């Protein structure tokens, strides 16, 4: 998908391996991974943070290949999914930070312009999630 408020075309992306089977060296079972996900979600971590921890600490490259489901779907089935979608939450957090900056620096026209862009992205995402 292209960029909304930038000139770039957004072509770069990480390349996933074609092989979708579980690596032979991974000793964790599907249930072990799910238990780890539940434990980390109860600590208040987002699905992407959970994925990073599982990748770095437990050697699970792709949760979907091990469990058959994505992290968010696993959390939804257990009722542990976050109230706000993660991308929308981070955009709102960014908009709040820029607003706070604008309270202190009223003449910052650049920040004011970028706040408008951030808020339009928030509205775009909200519209997407309402239809979904």
Helix content, binned percent:
55-70%
Mean pLDDT across the residues is 93
Largest β-sheet summary = none
Order of helices and strands: HHHHHH
The residue ranges in which pLDDT falls below 50 over 5 or more consecutive positions are none
What is the overall shape? elongated
Number of strands: 0
Proportion of β residues? Answer: under 5%
- Class from secondary-structure proportions: mainly alpha
User: What is the domain total for the residues?
Assistant: 2
Gyration radius (Cα, Å) is 19 Å
End-to-end distance? 18 Å
DSSP helix count?
A: 6
InterPro entries: Ribosomal_uS15 (IPR000589), Ribosomal_uS15_arc_euk (IPR023029), Ribosomal_uS15_N (IPR012606), uS15_NS1_RNA-bd_sf (IPR009068)
GO cellular component, one term: nucleolus
Family: Belongs to the universal ribosomal protein uS15 family.
Keywords: Ribonucleoprotein, Ribosomal protein
